[in-house]
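Predict both folds.
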Amino acid sequence: MGFLREILDYNKQFVEQEEFREFQTTKYPDKKVVILTCMDARLTELLPKAMNLKNGDAKIIKNAGGLVSHPLGSIMRSILVAIYELGAEEVMVIGHHDCGMANINPDETLHKMISRGVTEQTIFTLEYSGINIRKWLRGFENVSDSVKKSVETIRKHPLMPPNVFVHGLVIDPHTGKLDVIVEGKQTEGARG
């Protein structure tokens, strides 16, 4: 069972001792912000600390690279739900230096999949079905450009209200220093 048993044992004690009380808040972000960032483990505690965020301050969406890779994908849907249903008024896309998605090699990733039991026939079937799996696995070369691209995808989305500010930043995963790449301005969505 691996790590699951350790988590469950700890969780039982956490609940019994009511340690959850210090984290209680509502589902609405107090700072009215939704953040899209990378799933990098170095950012789990560093990013909120570097931004002076506590539990309940922000909606934080994480994926590999902090990317909006498709305007109708689940990341964009989550951002829109945070705005329309949960009261977010600003969006921050925060990439980071030394990201694992930078210069990822899709062929090497496919090789790792095959070595772990995915058949070449499965990959062929996906590609035959019209999925460009290498493009789907590809990350980016430059984190600043990647952040700019995701910011533009969000800003120009037709369902974005025009009064939402969309910012782009890059964080140093060693020091927590934030650099502004795109200072938010009102979106271009929801117009005529």
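Second protein follows, with its predicted structure tokens after the sequence.
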Amino acid sequence: MLSGLSWPAVALLLAAGVALDLLLGEARRFHPLVGFGNVASALERRLNNGGGRLLRGAAGWILAVLPLTALAMWLCGVAGVLAHAALLYFCIGLRSLRDHNLPIANALCRGDLPAARELTGRIVSRDTVDANEADLAKASAESLLENGNDAVFGTLFWFAVAGGPGALLFRLANTLDAMWGYRNARFLYFGRVAARIDDALNYIPARLTALSYVLLAPGAAGRRMAWRCWREQAPAWSSPNAGPVMSSGAGALGLALGGAARYDGEIEQRPPLGRGMPATAADIERAWRLVWRTTLLWLAVSWLGAATVMALGVRHA
């Protein structure tokens, strides 16, 4: 382990981090990632002008991410397990996914479209002012599937690899990609380094997430559908990681996602995701349950690994 933690310690901390997140949720007064976002915005305003924007973006990424990662490494060296646990808690976002998406389903079930539009607009960048129930349910389900990787499983993966500093590095890089990784005039060059680094850090976790969605699809037919959607639909997506995650998840749920979505007043026709019926309010909860079962699967695998390591240690003692 790059973190110096034993595998049993990693398994215990992964479970503890998930439990703390579900129990406490996001920090209410000051969330470190919110503070980081403010710093990143200030750096972008200062650096994203003039020539050499690719190099300026690289410098911005280094200034934003590396000092905080180095500080996290120092803290873990001083405080040990406590620092690792705190970093994992602040980086994981499982309860946040539930708390932001299930109210959308509840609003739709009540027939309260204005509330559902407002709630959905808080979690996606697409326009929701005139969205109907199917549009809102689709946006929420897609957000759950994709952010299952970005906010949960990628964090768990990099914690397993490099402890608290690894989880922090991943979430900071992912946050910068969400802020800077746009292909528009403002960020095309400045945000390119942030986007490529996030792609690299997400490559393995995204495919493990997609595989997990396949394994947890209902029945053999569901698993075949999820696998087929992954292999056939993911290459059409410009994001090398969102494609596998969302296509396999949509296939596992038997939903037809992707397609048309409105951004900045313009209809964007995106590649299809999955096959089946359009999403409804009930499918938001189904998407959440898939993310939750995948979390349990990853924890079970970590505990199995810990038990194997301990058994081998006893055998060779």
